[in-house]
Amino acid sequence: MSCEEQHSMEWQKISQRTYYRGRVALYAILQALGVGRNDEVACQAFTCVAVPEAILACGAKPVFIDIEPDGLNLDPIELKQKISSRTRAIVVQHTFGIPASMTRIMAITEQAGLPVIEDCCHTFLSTLENQYVGSFGAASFYSFEWGKPLALGIGGSAIANDPELARRLTDSFDELRYPGRLSQVKLELQGLAHRILYRPELYWKLKTLFHGLSKFGVAEGNYNPVGGDSPTAGDFSMKMAPRLERCLKNELQQIAKQADHSRRLVSQLEALIPQDSCVRPRSPSRVESVYSRYPMRVKEKGRLLVKAREENLELAEWYSTPIHPLSRDQSGCVFYEPDSCPNAEERSQEIVSLPLHSRVGRSYVEKISEFLRKAA
Ligand SMILES: *Cc1c(COP(=O)(O)O)cnc(C)c1O
């Protein structure tokens, strides 16, 4: 059995503890680590609001660390400076599947005696120094929202590498409840609609439809405004619906194949993309990134997105702000201070990402490369 096959078997563990969403899995891990009031949890800026939302739900305060000057992941130097006597855990994100600088991060956190939680929401089978991401820290969590490598619409999972933590997670997992009947039906219909309708050419139209439907409560949206009029507290006590869990088990069988597909598309893309207009974020050394989406730095991101929408080409904007999708004025509600993470602010203005999933093929790669060349 190859190393990859072995790991994809190891990956089946992902279906062991499945939660309503990725943020619910993170919340469960934080709770199992005993994080609570007056504690701080460090995480990177250039992330999604789901992360601080889970931290806040524990009563703790998120402390945002800037990303590396050339990359999209946590800057170890900043991390070292921002660890305080109140820090209780560090969330480390592997953005778009690019492994974070784990060797340096682990050295810092081990010295400080702090647990690392790996945010594997964007990863498949990426490795760093021949070790798979998700296996460095005390625990890791995954999300199965649209746009993630394993897309079910909604859902999450938590894996503990530390046996004592695993036991505590299993105990709390047994207390969780399933979503209500109506919610389960909605989620299934959403999944079904996505499987039937979704193609990269329909990305923008479906996105608009989805946001419209979730505003009226017909679909389950991804962002509930923090502190808004739709409190999310109830969400944190839910696990994944049984039918979705079955879907997840099926999808997991395909994961090694999907990773190969992603690698193939990336090598095609890298040969076609205009080098001068798109600066690819530099990866740390000795890594193999299996991208969930392919990030590119572009000039005039706003203009490019408008054009992509006109031409019905899937080009995702996230993250459009350091704590996506919160605006500058809204970010105070998760304790992000505007301009405190300049690299994340800058990257939010210039990163777009291309899809790499099974419905994207060679012809789509050619179409999007042509579009980027013309737009440059
Ligand atoms: C999607 C995502 C999450 C979790 O999202 P959920 O909607 O709660 O499943 C967490 N972190 C990152 C980096 C993500 O992209």
How would you sum up this structure in a few lines?
The protein is of the alpha/beta class and 376 residues long. The chain has 13 helices and 14 strands.
Structural summary, described in words:
The protein is an alpha/beta fold. 39% of the residues lie in helices and 14% in strands. It has 13 helices and 14 strands. The protein has a 7-stranded mixed β-sheet with strand order 1-10-9-6-5-2-4, with helices on both faces. Strands 8-7-11 form a 3-stranded antiparallel β-sheet, with no helix packed on it. Helix 5 (102-112) links the parallel strand 5 and strand 6. Helix 2 runs parallel beside helix 3 (50-57) and helix 10 runs parallel beside helix 13. The longest helix is centred in the last third of the chain and has 18 residues, at 255-272. The protein is globular. The chain starts with a helix and ends with a helix. The site of pyridoxal-5'-phosphate (PLP) has 16 residues, from helix 2, strand 3 and helix 3. Pyridoxal-5'-phosphate (PLP) is lined by residues 21-23, 47-48, 50-51, 93, 119, 121-122, 143, 145, 148, 156, 222.
